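Hi all, posting the design record for the shared folder.

TITLE: backbone redesign
STEP: 1 of 1
STRUCTURE INPUT:
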C-alpha cells in the first residue's frame, strides 16, 4: 500500500466503536464523497454585450413601434413571480410517485466509481455515529447540557425606529408608495409610484403607464391593500416622467420631497417599490455616482429619453420603476427608473431586457428635474421640454458636435453654428452628445448658461421651452 492508495489505513486513525473499522478516505471530517467525486468544470464563462433595461414588470414596444427594452409594456409577463415548489424532490430510491428521503440506501455495486460512492456513504454514517458517541461522553463529563430552545424569549421590541436608519425611512415612506398595475392594447405590466398630494396625485415613470394611455386601465394598490383606478394627468417621454391621479381614496399620505442638487457620492439611500410584483419591497445602498447620462427610452440610436441619472447600488429590479429613492431623512431625492443589466448570453436585446435583474447598478431621475416637470403637468396638463434647438452627435475628438440649427432657436440666437463642438456647460464637462442632452434637460426654460466650445470660444445661451406631445 502507498500513501495514494485510497484503501490504505492508518493504524493510529480512530476506529468505529462497534465494527472496529476505520473510515474511508474523505469520511468523518472530510467531504462525504472524497475529492475523487468532485465534479470538474471546463471552459471559461461566456459573456455578452451589456444593455440597459427599464425596471418595470414587463417589456413592451416603446410607443407601439420599435421594441423598447425600457418600457413597462410589450412582452407579456406572468401575473406574479415564478413559484417554486416547497415539496421535496422525488425519491430516487423509493417507489414511483414517492418523495422524501430513503429509509435505507441500496447495496453499492462492486465496480468502478459507484463502489467509491457507496463506501463514502458508509463512512459518512459511521462518522455520524462516532461523532455522536464522542459528543455524548464529552457532554457527560462537563455537566448538564444547555439548550437554546429552553431559554425564554427576549423582551419584545418597543420604541420607535432609530432616526436615520433604514427602518425609520421605510416606516415613513412605505404608506406613500403604491403598486401600479397597467394594461392596454399593447400589453400589460406593473411598476411603482408614490403619492405627492392628499387629493390623489401620484408621481411615476412615463414608461410605467404609457401602455395604459388611450383607453387602457391603471390601478393603484396601496400598502394597506386599498385599490383605486387611476387616470393619466400628463406624461413626458423625453424625461420619462408621468403623473396619474386616483379618486375615491381618503387619508393619503404624501411623501416629503428632498433635493438632488446637493447629493454626495457615498451617502446612504433607500429604495422602495414593487419588484416582480413584490409590493412594498425595501432595499438600501449608497449613491454610487452623479450626473450619469443614461438613455432610458426610444428606439436604438436616438435620444428620446436621456436622463441625468443618480446612480445607486440599492437593489432595484423590474417593477421598481417609478418608486422613490430616498435619503436617510426619508426625503425623496430620485425616481428609480432603469438598471444596467448584462444581456442574456443566449438572447438578444429583448430577451436580455426580460431577464434583466439587479447587478448593483441602478439609475434614478433626480427629483429636482422630476418636481419641475410634475408641477407643470399638474398645472397645465402637459410637460414642457427644455431645449436649445440643435441636432447633436458625438464629436470624434470628444465633446458634442452640433448639427443643423433650428431657425429662431436659442442656439441660433446665441450664435452657435453647425459644426461647433461643445466641451462644457458652465462648470460641467461635456464629453458626448448624451451628456449634452442630459445637461440641457436638467435646466429650466429661461435659465442662462455659458457654453464653452472646443476652439476656446464661450457663448451665453438662454434655454428655451416647448410643449411635449406624448406619442
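Okay, here is what came back for every position:
SEQUENCE:
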Amino acid at each position: 500500500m502507498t500513501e495514494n492508495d485510497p484503501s490504505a489505513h492508518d493504524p493510529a486513525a480512530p476506529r468505529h466503536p462497534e465494527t472496529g473499522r476505520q473510515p474511508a478516505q474523505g469520511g468523518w471530517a472530510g467531504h462525504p464523497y472524497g475529492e475523487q467525486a468532485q465534479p470538474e468544470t471546463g471552459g471559461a464563462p461566456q459573456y455578452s454585450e451589456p444593455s440597459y433595461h427599464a425596471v418595470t414588470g414587463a417589456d413592451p414596444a416603446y410607443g407601439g413601434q420599435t421594441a423598447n427594452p425600457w418600457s413597462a409594456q410589450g412582452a407579456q409577463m406572468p401575473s406574479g413571480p415564478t413559484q417554486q415548489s416547497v415539496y421535496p424532490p422525488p425519491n430516487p430510491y423509493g417507489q414511483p410517485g414517492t418523495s422524501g428521503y430513503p429509509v435505507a440506501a441500496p447495496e453499492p455495486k462492486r465496480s468502478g466509481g459507484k463502489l467509491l460512492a457507496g463506501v463514502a456513504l458508509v463512512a459518512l454514517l459511521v462518522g455520524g455515529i462516532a461523532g455522536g458517541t464522542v459528543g455524548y461522553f464529552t457532554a457527560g463529563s462537563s455537566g448538564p447540557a444547555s439548550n437554546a430552545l429552553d431559554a425564554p424569549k427576549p423582551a419584545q421590541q418597543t420604541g420607535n425606529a432609530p432616526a436615520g436608519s433604514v427602518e425609520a425611512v421605510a416606516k415613513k415612506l412605505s404608506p406613500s408608495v403604491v403598486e401600479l398595475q397597467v394594461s392596454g392594447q399593447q400589453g400589460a405590466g406593473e411598476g411603482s409610484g408614490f403619492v405627492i398630494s392628499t387629493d390623489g396625485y401620484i408621481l411615476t415613470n412615463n414608461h410605467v403607464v404609457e401602455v395604459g394611455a388611450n383607453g387602457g386601465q391603471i390601478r393603484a394598490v396601496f400598502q394597506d391593500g386599498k385599490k383605486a383606478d387611476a387616470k393619466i394627468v400628463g406624461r413626458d417621454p423625453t424625461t420619462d416622467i408621468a403623473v396619474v391621479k386616483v379618486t375615491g381614496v381618503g387619508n393619503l399620505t404624501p411623501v416629503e420631497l428632498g433635493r438632488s442638487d446637493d447629493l454626495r457620492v457615498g451617502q446612504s439611500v433607500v429604495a422602495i417599490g414593487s419588484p416582480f410584483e413584490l409590493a412594498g419591497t425595501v432595499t438600501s445602498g449608497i449613491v454610487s455616482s452623479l450626473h450619469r447620462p443614461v438613455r432610458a427610452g426610444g428606439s436604438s440610436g436616438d435620444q428620446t429619453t436621456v436622463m441625468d441619472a443618480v446612480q445607486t447600488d440599492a437593489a432595484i429590479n423590474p417593477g421598481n420603476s417609478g418608486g422613490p429613492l430616498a435619503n436617510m431623512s426619508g426625503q425623496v431625492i430620485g425616481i428609480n427608473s432603469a438598471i444596467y443589466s448584462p444581456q442574456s448570453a443566449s438572447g438578444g436585446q429583448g430577451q436580455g431586457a426580460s431577464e434583466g435583474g439587479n447587478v448593483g447598478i441602478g439609475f434614478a431621475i433626480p427629483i429636482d428635474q422630476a418636481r419641475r416637470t410634475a408641477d407643470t403637468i399638474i398645472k397645465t396638463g402637459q410637460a414642457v421640454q427644455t431645449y436649445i434647438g440643435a441636432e447633436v452627435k458625438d464629436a470624434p475628438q470628444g465633446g458634442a458636435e452640433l448639427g443643423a440649427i433650428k431657425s429662431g432657436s436659442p442656439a441660433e440666437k446665441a450664435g452657435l453654428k453647425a459644426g461647433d463642438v461643445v466641451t462644457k456647460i458652465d462648470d460641467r464637462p461635456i464629453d458626448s452628445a448624451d451628456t449634452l442632452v442630459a445637461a440641457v434637460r436638467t435646466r429650466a426654460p429661461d435659465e442662462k448658461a455659458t457654453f464653452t466650445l472646443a476652439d476656446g470660444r464661450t457663448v451665453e445661451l438662454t434655454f428655451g421651452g416647448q410643449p411635449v406631445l406624448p406619442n
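COMMENT: The radius of gyration is 31 Å.
Let me know if anyone wants the other runs.
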